[in-house]
Specification:
Largest sheet of chain A: 7 strands, mixed
Oligomer: homodimer
Strand content of chain A: 15-25%
Largest interface: A-B, 33 and 33 residues
Order of helices and strands of chain A: HHEHHHHHEHEEHEHEHEHH
């Protein structure tokens, strides 16, 4: 009898563990405030007949990309792309051997790029991102993404994405949410790989953009990428982009830096159920630790506002069981 | 025996008629080339395993609005809105009594507005469309749409939509298409009513836009509409807008004027199954008849290209059984 009871208990425990695994949509999140708040929010907005219910078509969730969905240190991935691209193009531009900021960046790399400030970045950005058709640029980005590796994690950048956030994206979509990226990064730098990596289709990617122009090239219509900024999707630009592209206010917004503050404010200012969340990079061992003083992804004023307004602040070290997807699993998907 | 046979035949005929009605997704289209081409195209792209099959996520269809989905004569609906709005605002602008183009338009109406050319239109556009928050503008448009009537058809503008095109939109969506509007009209002039009228949600409306700016107003974040053009979604701007907002090339595009020519070219230039269609306004009795010489919705070069490239040209008079939805039916939905 005792033996039977023990086996029954074991069986029950096993079932319960299996049940928990099977039903936990966020297995890479440690139990705690952020995980509970996310699960509660999703439950509330999908509870038909309740005061917290939100109709499916209004379940819009917007995610920053750099530092929120994937690594942004030691420099934004798009900056790494710029540097590589500059080196590829250099042989065709002998003038860069003496011309600034090109000469400095070609010899000094990332540090020189960051030292060149806004103006230098813009010059290098235009030299590497304009002057080709949208189709050509898509091929360039796709090829680079296939071959480039993160300098510290030695894996493709598309595998330097946060496993807990992938689970969060999937959980929201499973509950009728439309998930969007709203990033300061270039929209055409993201679209070639976001569907495969995040499950977010091109039409749900909002980002910074340069102007394009419709032209006929030997009877074939093309869109030429011009060396002129069109839209900067950062800070106050994020609500502007959200309004322009989506035309609805999100009910959930996810970011990690001061560049996301206005997106979270805009989301918070709507009526009904709301979720505002910041990822705080606190894990120098498994990823990076930075906030108020970082040049990349500074989190300062937004952190103060998050604390003052009780927005969710994810402590990466405490709240995330794992950081990245298992390389083999992701690798096989690429 | 003969009586039974006759009854059987009658019964069969009735069943057949009922069956035809039940399965004809385009009942307001007369049988003929355009209807057959549409039905064939939809069948082809949804035939799994066939060479003409297109995966669901790539089934993007883009529709012009003015003259393609709703009436654009005697003037674009948004121009009628501008004129009404100008009259509403006039008491607050005593300077308009002498200032041009305002004085001329306030006394001369639509003709004076059109006579003022691009520059006059822009001035009146900014005076009526900017200087308020996006939320305030949405209320202004919604209220106007609720009360304004078309001068000839004496019904709300949202009932001056084409019944055959409503059926086409529904048929495409029933077959996995994502339907978009890509219009020269203002995006925020359309979004308040397009979901109810066409079943197209705000995030699938692409249009012309003015700049907006994120501001705090007594602690509340707002988007202020600035008197400055941001994007003109017409002619070559249509492929630009499609690329910027959707990031995929449509496989079907629908227009009615030279402003849609580049959108149809861009669509046609993709590989695989394609459908390009122009609505030709040929019915002065039931709607309007105009093409090469019209100031509104001119169809000249695009008509030549459509004929040369065998795009579908809908002859409104010949191909459409009905033009507008039954007023009572639409009315009850409003």
């Amino acid at each position: 009898m005792r033996r039977i009871a023990a086996r029954t208990l074991l069986l029950l425990a096993a079932c319960s563990a299996a049940g928990q695994n099977a039903t936990d949509p966020l297995p890479s999140w440690n139990d705690g405030g952020p995980k509970q708040a996310i699960l509660r929010f999703v439950k509330n907005v999908t509870a038909e007949g309740s005061a917290t219910f939100v109709p499916k078509e209004e379940r819009i969730a917007t995610f920053d990309n750099d530092g929120t969905l994937w690594v942004e240190q030691p420099i934004y991935t798009q900056f790494a792309f710029m540097l590589d691209r500059l080196r590829v193009l250099a042989p065709q531009h002998p003038e860069w051997r003496t011309q600034q900021p090109f000469q400095a960046i070609l010899t000094g790399g990332a540090e020189a790029l960051l030292a060149g400030g806004e103006r230098g970045l813009m010059q290098v950005g235009m030299a590497t991102h304009a002057g080709m058709t949208t189709k050509e640029f898509e091929s360039i980005v796709s090829e680079w993404m296939r071959t480039a590796q993160h300098p510290r994690f030695h894996r493709p950048y598309t595998q330097c994405v946060y496993q807990p956030m992938l689970e969060l994206l999937a959980h929201l979509r499973a509950n009728g949410f439309k998930t969007y990226i709203v990033s300061g990064g270039g929209v055409e730098f993201m679209r070639p790989w976001t569907e495969k990596t995040y499950g977010i289709p091109p039409e749900q990617i909002i980002g910074s953009s340069i102007k394009t122009q419709y032209e006929m090239r030997s009877g074939e219509p093309v869109l030429m990428r011009l060396p002129e900024m069109d839209f900067i999707d950062d800070k106050g630009g994020k609500p502007v982009g959200i309004n322009e592209f989506i035309g609805r206010r999100p009910i959930a917004a996810f970011g990690n830096s001061d560049g996301d503050q206005q997106m979270l404010e805009w989301t918070a200012a709507g009526s009904g159920s709301r979720l505002m969340l910041l990822v705080h990079h606190t894990d120098a061992t498994r990823e990076y630790a930075y906030d108020r003083k970082s040049h990349i992804g500074r989190l300062d004023k937004a952190l103060d506002e998050a604390i003052a307004r009780s927005w969710i602040v994810v402590d990466m070290k405490r709240d995330w069981k794992t950081i990245f997807p298992e390389a083999s699993v992701r690798g096989s998907e690429q």
